[in-house]
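Quick one before lunch.
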Amino acid sequence: MKRVAVFCGSSIGFAPVYADEAKKLGHFLAEQNISLVYGGGKIGIMGTIADAVMEMRGEVIGVIPDLLKHEEVAHTKITKMVVTRKMSKRKVKISKLVDGYIALAGGFGTLDELFEALTLGQLGIEAKPIGILNTNGYFDYTLKQLDVMVKEGFLKQINRDMLFVSDSFEKLIQMMRRYEAPKVSKVVNTVASK
Ligand code: AMP
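Model of the adenosine monophosphate complex:
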């Protein structure tokens, strides 16, 4: 992996552990020569991880939509900022730049980006590893929901298993490096079962 997208909160969270882990991950990415691609903000743990990569002289590429570009939000001290016209274009641009995705704790924006990446993987449009850094068990309920979706027949186990989960960023990146995409996409399956 040369470039990874990190989706994470534009908030900082109540417990300091979320920002602490984001910072450690940022340092690790720089050490491993993996560039960070992210939403381009300087706020919340988005800002924390970008600062951490820059601190270790790593590469940070922000991709921000025009409407969020104003001073209070956009990071001004990163390697490169790409400005897109719309939120939806931002996601497309990020996906073109990266070899994998990691989600850290966040809110609607983070979940939206994570599930879009999973959907692209499920449809076989992309074959990139996707991981969750489950700091403090933050995603435990989200993962339980995925199991409900499998149990109730709305999500295939093979697609559920695309998602890597660990509370250790070293382990997570190791697993992501070994990723092999499922051979059959949901689209192919749907067509084949008709
Ligand atoms: P949230 O998880 O709702 O805080 O949203 C964070 C995610 O959505 C990030 O990964 C960003 O890509 C995007 N995002 C949301 N708010 C902002 C913002 N103010 N500046 C830049 N990106 C944002």
